[in-house]
Structures are given as structure tokens and as C-alpha cells.
Amino acid sequence: MSSFLNIAAVSKRYGDVQALNNVSLEIRENEFFALLGPSGCGKTTLLRALAGLESLDSGVVTLANEDLLSVPANKRPVNLMFQSYALFPHLNVYDNVAYGLRREKLDKAEIEQRVQDVLKTVALIDQKDRRPSQLSGGQKQRVALARAIVKRPKILLLDEPLSALDKKVRSEMQLELKRLQHEAGITFIIVTHDQEEAMSIADRIALMDKGEVVQIATPVEMYSAPKTKFVADFIGTSNLFAGTLGAGTITTQGKTLPTPATALSAGSKAVLVLRPEDISLGAAGTISGTLVSSNFYGGSSLLFVDCGFDQLIKVSCALNQVPPVGSTCHLSWSAADSILLADV
Amino acid sequence: MLVPNTLGWLRVPLYGVLVFLYLPISVLIFMSFNKSDSPFMWTGFSTKWYSVLVNSPNIMEGFKNTLIVAIATTIISIVLGTLLAIGLARYQKSSALEAVALTPAIFPDLALAIGLLALFTSLHLTLGLHSVIISHALFCMAFVTAIVRGRLSQIDSSLEEAAQDLGDTPVGTFFRITLPSIKPAIIAGGLLAFTLSFDEFVIAFFTDGPSTPTLPIIIYSMVRFGVSPEINALATVVLLISALIVTIAQRNVKVQDQI
After folding, report:
1. Domain spanning A3-229: which superfamily?
2. What pTM, to 2 d.p., does this model score?
3. Can you give the residue ranges of the ABC transporter domain (chain A) (predicted)?
4. Measured between CB atoms, which of A53, A133, A147 is closest to B166?
5. Theoretical Cys-Cys bridge with A153: which of A79, A309, B17, B218, CB 3.0 to 4.6 Å?
6. What is the pLDDT of residues A63-120, one digit of tens each?
7. Looking at the complex, does the CB of residue B257 fall below 8 Å from at least one CB of chain A?
8. What separation in angstroms does the CA of A338 have from each of A4, A49, A333?
9. Nearest chain B Cα to A54, which residue?
């Protein structure tokens, strides 16, 4: 598939802070794309620049091969759903949703039809005469969504759309967003700092750090083949061992662990990444230690084992196999399941 | 232990202060309905002093002048004060500039009055209602600015961005989003400007021309020859108008808080 939105070498600086540093991304049509990263990584700046609310210092952005940056915000075929929702407090739900269509000077019957349709889609038709102050958080979020998609933008930008909702409503809304994206056939770009959210919702993720894109991949690739230590640490839960490579081993904190096949040369600095679910408990193991605590997560538990490293080792364990706290655990894994990354 | 819900002996200062606050005004209103023309002796109920007011061309002229000044002051203060508040909130974030814009509200009247008179004289400007309007707008504007500025800092600045994102022009955004959001503050500020101008004496006394006295100036010149009962009636009318407008302004602020 050819690229739809092409972001090429964009940069933006605020005083001493490099918010975006030479960022390039290609986003495909009808894709659900996530910009993920810790706060201050530049993801929101990039999103606002795409909406036209922020100017860029350099770089080119094209949408369907046409320059986007020279188009003012109110003429871009792009709509933004704000983190605060930014619903107009003096207008009711209907007028909020109709606002953008009225600015397009469409005829009344068409506006009426499209607003009714979108309100039905987000199940808010019964609340159409209410003011935003009379709605719950989830309802406000759906009004904000309806107001943006009713314009039928080529791209819908979502700035932390679910961060103000509690956990249960949030997972329902994640499903809802996926369904809407599928039905509306619109390219969605979502900004989030929540890696679980990005993993469960997006087709592809761009992980950003300090104004730069660190890795662009599907959620599965990002998890199973992280490019750097930062990615391995940010995505999912992992045990990281930094050390020096030997022949098929890594020496870390005075201990030696087996490594998978690698192109890295012996003697170089590297990080061994071990996911909790790749480690198993047994009668004997590569390393052993005392179980310090276990955290219950529904179907499985996460064990914290003290094996003499600076950090506790995290091990995923089925619920009925959790040993008592204080007992000795023997941890083993297949070296091929672990990931070895150069440490820079 | 439950706090007793009776005030006990604290009732004494409470009611004492309330009496202190409202006794003079009560006497004024009471005496304005006195039949006798002695300001000290009650001889029976009458509304004749109110009809004296209505039939006095002098007072009615002053009332008209005061209304012209108050309405013009309100309009100028609303427009300039709102623009200044938006400028301060959105385009020139400087606390020093903000202080400079808001201090006319707390300038001593006398200093402002003398300064304005000196300015008008040095500019060879003739004095009249127009000079009173300029002077009143100068200090009333600061009140409107303060109230609208406060409201602007409460509203979500992404509302305007959202309007533009949905395809509105900057001018359309101002009239459809910004103005409705700050409308209650503009109304409250305008009503405050009206009451401040309506009974303002010191600045009007210095900057008005002799042929167009405002109501407070007329009251002052009448009092110089002793307190007559129609003064009581006139002061009661001024009091009621101010009280009415302050009440409307406060209601309006309450409604605004509910939105």
C-alpha cells in the first residue's frame, strides 16, 4: 500500500527544547496509527502540527501527494479530537456536532441528516438537547468524537482520547474506536502515553522519545523484536540485563547468562531482554533466588524473585502454580526466546 | 461535640453592625415619605416629594445628563475593556502590563479628577458631558477588563482551536465561541460600569461643564443650602436604581457560574 500521509524530516524547537527532531513517518490510508511515547516526547506537538495548530520549523508534510503545511487549520481535511474534548459549553450536543457542517455551508437537510446519523452511531441521539455540562465523561468523549467524524475528514487525529475515562469505560471505548474507524473508513492517528492502549488498538505504532522516532512497527513486532533498550523497556514488562558479551554469554553484575545467536561481537556492551512469560519455574534453573512477592493479575500472577541482581526478576506464573512467598525459585528459559540488543 | 448553632452573645455585634450599615439609608428612605418639609420631624405619610422631583425641570435635566453619561460610559467600557482583556489574556502575557491596565480602578478619585482636568485644559478641550464620559470610561473600563480577564482565564483555550479545526474563520470563532463564553462577564462588567458612573461625583464635578450638571452635582449644589426633603426622595431613587443594577449583575454572575 502506498503512503497516504507523508511526514518528511520535520523539526520543531521551543527555546532550549527540541520537541521534534527530524521526524519522518509514512502513514497509510485507513490505518489506525498510534504515536506512543512518554510525556514530553513530541507526540502531541506532531499531532497539533498535523491539525495546523502548531507551526513547524522545517520539514514537509503531504497528504495524498498535496502539501498540507501551507493549508490553514480551518481548511485542512483533518480533524482533531482534543484531550479536554473542547466541547462548546454554550451549545447543546446537536449544535456542537453540527458546528463544523454549518461552517461548510451545507444545506440544512443534509446537516440534519448527517448529525442525526452520527449521533445514532455514537448512541447519543437521546441526549441531543443536553448541554455538555449535563453529560458524563464517556458521553462527552463520544460527542467530541461525533463532532470530529461528522466532518468526514481524511484523517482523524485523537489526542489522548481515553485518558480522562476510568479503566472499564476506557476498554469499552477502545473497542468503540476500532469499530468506528472500521465503519467510517477514516485514517486514525492516536496520541497516547499508554503502551497497553497503543498495543491493543493500533495497526502500527511509532514509538517516540525526546523528539525522535525510535521504532515504527506493528504491536507484535514492537514487542517481539524491539530495536533498542528504550523500546524493550517501554513496551510490555521485561527484565533487562546490561553487560559485556562473551562467547554465547553475557556477563552482567558479575554473573554469566546465556545469549541467543547474535551478530554483535564479543567484548561489546549489550543488553539482554527477558520477558516474564518466557521464564519458567522448575526443579533446577539457570538462576535461582527467593520469591519476594507476587502480584495477582486475574488469570496469571507476576512473581518478583531476588536472584542477587540489583533488580528483582519478574516472572509470569499461572495462578495455581504460585509458590509461597519466601520459598526458593529456580528460573530457566530458552536462550532463543531472549533478545539481545546493543547497548549504546 | 456538636458546635452549638446559636450565635449567643455574638448576636450583639452582628446586629449592631447591620444597624450601623443600614440605619442611615433607612432614615433616608423613611424621611423621603415625610409630609412635612422639616427634615427632622415626622408629620405623616406622603409621596409629594417624588412628584416635586418629577416636576422639577432642573432635576429631570440632571437625570437625563446622568443617564447619557452612564449609558455612553457603559458602552465604551464594555468594548474597550473586553478588547483589552482579550489582548492581555491571549497576546501579551505580562503581569506588569496587566497591573498597569487594571490600576485605574483603584486610583484615588481626586487624583484622577485633577489629572484629567489638567489634561483637558492643556488640550484646550471644552468641558461638558463628553469630557465626563471620557473620564468615567477611563476608570470604569478597568473594572470591565478585570472581570472579563478573570472569565477568560477560566475558559478552555482549546475551545477556539476546536472551532478553527472544525472549519471556522478567526472572526467567526470570535463571534461564535469567544464572545458567548465571556458574555456573562461582559454583562456583569457593563452593569458595574453603569452603577459606578451613575452616582459618581468627584470626577464629574471636576470634568463637567457648568451648563450640563449630572445628578450627583445637582444634589451637591442643593445640599449646600441645607437638606431638603426632595433630596431624600432623589437620593432614594438613585439608591434604588443602583441596588437594582447590582442585584441584576450578581444574579448574572451566579448564572455564569452554573454554566
Report:
1. P-loop containing nucleotide triphosphate hydrolases (3.40.50.300)
2. 0.79
3. 5-235
4. A147
5. A79
6. 998 999 999 999 999 999 999 999 999 999 999 999 999 999 899 999 999 999 999 8
7. no
8. 36, 39, 8
9. B161
